[in-house]
């Protein structure tokens, strides 16, 4: 339905691969496979994490954490999960009692179980690493999930679908502003502490689209019926306005807080992770839902951090202090001067 509406509105689709983009003073050219060249007034990269078109400060500056997950949609003989509930963040490790090496690895780099039941005989199950650097491998995630299923007594009759998920989280944003525009993963919209992105991308899209329309309306040159910039300065100015709508100062400050959260999570072992989320999910809905959905502004994030610390058990308080002591001044410096480039490593 959406594609049909796009076609009726004059959108053209082409099955090819964008390889690189070159910007002149007036237009941009996307070089694609099969020697195809596409000319445009503005180019927007929505290709996720390929890093093909958008520019970064350098390879060394992009050092994200990774959320990895292996999941399966399966038909089973039976399962123990209520059909009216989804299971989220089950950090239990009793399924690894007979696999001491795997249990020791999980104690250092923990993973959790996610379950979505569809019927008494159909479920989606997923083993997820919240964030790790480097990522936990898919074979290890699969082995941990297999051991969980056996421990729960779930016998799989048929695997309908497999999911392999690897999400870069945090790291440096693309250089902005730059002539190549971006949305979604290409623009760094993934939540650095949770791996969530869809709601942020959907809520941002209308704002970016409006700014693109404004930019095209502001161009003073023409090529046939299409408007174009008359100078590099004009094209740069329009691109800068669009990037500013995507990453205003308050969003940059918010992201630094989330990157600091990732830095703490990366240093927690299994018990530390359990203690952290025991505190996290006993906060008010306003705080924990706002944090997960990236709806808290900086003042509310500060209140969130204080509430989390005060609500934490003694061990969790110690972990927050000890794991965050090096990253806190960096985060505060970046919040005060956003944006600039500095690694948390």
UniProtKB/TrEMBL annotation:
Keywords: Carotenoid biosynthesis, NAD. GO terms for molecular function: intramolecular oxidoreductase activity; oxidoreductase activity, acting on paired donors, with incorporation or reduction of molecular oxygen. Belongs to the lycopene cyclase family. Pathway: Carotenoid biosynthesis; beta-zeacarotene biosynthesis; Carotenoid biosynthesis; beta-carotene biosynthesis. Its EC number is 5.5.1.19. GO terms for biological process: carotenoid biosynthetic process. It holds the Pfam family Lycopene_cycl. It is an enzyme of class 5 (isomerase). It comes from Tetraselmis suecica. This is lycopene beta-cyclase. PANTHER family: OS02G0190600 PROTEIN, PTHR39757. It comes from the Eukaryota.
């Amino acid at each position: 339905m959406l594609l049909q509406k796009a076609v009726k509105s004059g959108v053209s689709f082409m099955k090819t691969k964008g390889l690189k983009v070159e910007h002149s003073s007036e237009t941009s050219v996307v070089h694609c496979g099969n020697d195809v060249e596409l000319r445009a007034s503005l180019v927007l990269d929505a290709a996720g994490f390929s890093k093909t078109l958008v520019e970064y400060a350098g390879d060394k500056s992009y050092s994200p954490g990774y959320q990895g997950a292996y999941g399966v949609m399966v038909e089973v003989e039976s399962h123990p999960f209520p059909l009216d509930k989804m299971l989220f963040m089950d950090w239990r490790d009793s399924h690894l009692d007979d696999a001491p090496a795997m249990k020791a690895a999980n104690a250092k780099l923990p993973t959790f179980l996610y379950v979505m039941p569809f019927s008494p005989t159909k479920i989606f199950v997923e083993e997820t690493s919240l964030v790790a650097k480097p990522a936990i491998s898919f074979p290890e995630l699969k082995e941990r999930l297999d051991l969980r299923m056996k421990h729960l007594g779930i016998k799989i009759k048929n695997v309908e679908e497999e999911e392999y998920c690897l999400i870069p989280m945090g790291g440096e944003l693309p250089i902005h502003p730059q002539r190549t525009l971006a949305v979604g993963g290409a623009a760094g919209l993934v939540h650095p502490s949770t791996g969530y992105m869809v709601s942020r991308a959907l809520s941002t899209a209308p704002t970016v689209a409006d700014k693109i329309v404004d930019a095209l309306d502001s161009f003073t040159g023409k090529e046939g019926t299409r408007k174009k910039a008359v100078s590099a300065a004009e094209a740069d100015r329009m691109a800068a306005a669009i990037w500013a709508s995507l990453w205003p100062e308050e969003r940059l400050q918010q992201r630094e807080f989330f990157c600091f959260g990732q830095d703490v999570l990366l240093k927690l072992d299994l018990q530390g992770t359990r203690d952290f989320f025991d505190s996290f999910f006993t906060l008010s809905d306003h705080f924990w839902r706002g944090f997960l959905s990236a709806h808290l502004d900086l003042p509310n994030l500060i209140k969130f951090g204080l509430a989390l610390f005060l609500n934490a058990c003694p061990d969790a308080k110690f972990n927050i202090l000890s794991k965050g002591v090096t990253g806190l001044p960096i985060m505060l410096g970046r919040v005060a001067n956003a944006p600039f480039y500095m690694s948390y490593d």
